[in-house]
């Protein structure tokens, strides 16, 4: 059924080499070749701005760059300049660098709802530190996670709740309970059922628009039940506002975690929050010490310099507003061509304009990995690498127009598959797979 063949021979060989040496063939499951159509998982050579090139020589307009981390585009001049300034000054010392002071001051000025901050290299370490801190502060064992949010940490307290729970003891799993997003009554029922046992509520504050009063209601519930409210702002940080969802909606959590956009691809994350909680991981108190965050590379100077440059760029260039304008243009274009091809109810763009995802629905309106495979194949062949439609500020109007044109071509094929009630002839291999599954 393919009218033209799109082949990636060099990427295919490189993927075999990756799998021979690296479990999963990638360092993040969401980047695995099982997430892409068979034999169409490009291996990247380099990137600049909103474009990446694979080792086969193809150029793509890229979305969701670095799992949403590269929000300013690849090799952003201002960030690279800040990093270069530190590289020949040394990256790691026996004592804190003055850069750590400057980075903390900059972060707390950007996120004024926080009183202290500690940096790390990845989001999982920050969220796990927040959970440990909450348990220490409350003396309670249970963690309440939002069931509607896909990922919080690689650590046992979360991974044990997923289909990939192999290696996590059942006793650990039993300490994690879940609540639904947007439902205060259900959350209160959970807190009442486990009265005085829940150390914290942890959630992404706004992957979808929160119902009116919801976040304030969670704040009140946490206060009334004596548990710690933790906002995971890995995604909402900077994309919702420079201070994340807490800055946009005006609800202050006890602790919050940031990462992804904070470093524009460089490895940096942050745990921030109330001084009385954060200081339990410090030296200026008389209580039990909490092993909060202690990482050899947690304060690499060039990563902290990147974070400061990102914050400056967001503030001075109004990046969050740019992301929304670009996302709105993309969403409108995709919806228009999908409707025009008669697949507007099947290729569905969702989410905030700065954080768009797409759903691929079958002839019965159900989510379909097979139809996603068909869609991704056509996008890749048209030079669009889009595991999501999450924009970066490096995108031009021409990039988005090209993307919409390619989506229109994909929609024409999608319509044929729907009419046949079977996308198989257009897949050319196995369908893409969900990240979280029990068996490989």
From TrEMBL:
Molecular function per GO: glutamate-1-semialdehyde 2,1-aminomutase activity; pyridoxal phosphate binding; transaminase activity
Gene3D superfamilies: Aspartate Aminotransferase, domain 1, Type I PLP-dependent aspartate aminotransferase-like (Major domain)
Keyword Transcription: no
One family name in Pfam for this protein: Aminotran_3
EC number: 5.4.3.8
InterPro entries in UniProt: Aminotrans_3, PyrdxlP-dep_Trfase, PyrdxlP-dep_Trfase_major, PyrdxlP-dep_Trfase_small
Cofactor: pyridoxal 5'-phosphate
Keyword Phosphoprotein assigned: no
Top-tier EC class: isomerase
Keywords, ordered alphabetically: Isomerase, Pyridoxal phosphate
Signal sequence interval, chain numbering: none
Family: Belongs to the class-III pyridoxal-phosphate-dependent aminotransferase family.
NCBIfam families: PRK06209.1
PANTHER family, alphabetized: GLUTAMATE-1-SEMIALDEHYDE 2,1-AMINOMUTASE, GLUTAMATE-1-SEMIALDEHYDE 2,1-AMINOMUTASE 1, CHLOROPLASTIC-RELATED
Name of the protein in its database record: Glutamate-1-semialdehyde 2,1-aminomutase
